[in-house]
Design a protein that fits this description.
This protein is α/β, with parallel strands linked by helices. Helix content is 33%, strand content 28%.
């Protein structure tokens, strides 16, 4: 695969641990993890159930902060930011693509993609950006008028990708993005992600499927909250 990797460090986990305090006792989901992802990389994260994949995704997506250690995004220490600053960083820097799509059922495909723009600019999109993103992932004007339950799984995931892209984030964070799709449709979605990577996006994908991980430039394997060295 052609590399578009830049020289700058985009994400750094520095000796990060995440401990959950449960009634049954403390549970260490991440155990002194250090990781650097550079701008323009395509990275796969693999590991068995309970290995810490979901926890590390929550860290990378700024949905949680470390118990100890540091998470740096573009050199900014996330723990030192206010909740509002973290919210704005999530909105502007990261596009999320999930296994379950999470489209708003009462909105059309177009309105789902437009919604992040409304949240950011407090008005309807007049730039054509939402329609442009839908076209880019193969959803035409007529299909854009449909609600999610009128679309196939593959079409819904395309809409979800368009929504993730609409604010032009540097990072695409993909959590089992083909998990609810048949094999053929899943690889069509992967082709879209590969193309976005070639255009400069940093793509991070969590998967349990080795064939999907092979699309990435490198694979990070987790086990029992630690990174397993190759």
């Amino acid at each position: 695969m052609e590399s578009t990797m830049g020289n700058s460090s985009l994400i750094q986990l520095v000796d990060v641990s995440k401990v959950y305090h449960l009634e049954s006792g403390d549970f260490t989901a991440l155990n002194h993890v250090s990781l650097e992802i550079r701008e323009g990389e395509f990275v796969a994260i693999m590991g068995p159930s309970g290995s810490g994949k979901s926890t590390i995704m929550n860290q990378l997506g700024i949905l949680d902060v470390p118990t100890t250690g540091k998470l740096l995004i573009n050199g900014q220490d996330v723990a030192k930011m206010s909740n509002l600053e973290r919210t704005h960083l999530r909105r502007d820097a990261i596009g999320y693509i999930f296994q379950k799509f999470y489209l708003i059922p009462l909105l059309s495909a177009y309105e789902n993609v437009e919604y992040p723009l409304i949240l950011k600019y407090k008005k309807r999109d007049t730039t054509g950006r939402a329609a442009e993103m839908l076209t880019a992932v193969g959803i035409d004007h007529d299909m854009g008028a449909h609600r999610p339950n009128q679309l196939s799984g593959g079409q819904q995931q395309r809409v979800a990708i368009a929504r993730a892209l609409v604010n032009d984030p540097k990072i695409l964070l993909c959590d089992e993005p083909t998990g609810n799709l048949d094999r053929k449709t899943g690889f069509q979605i992967l082709d879209i992600l590969v193309d976005l990577h070639r255009k400069g996006k940093t793509v991070i994908i969590v998967t349990h499927d080795q064939k999907i991980a092979e699309y990435a430039q490198r694979t990070i394997t987790l086990d029992d909250g630690r990174i397993v060295e190759p």
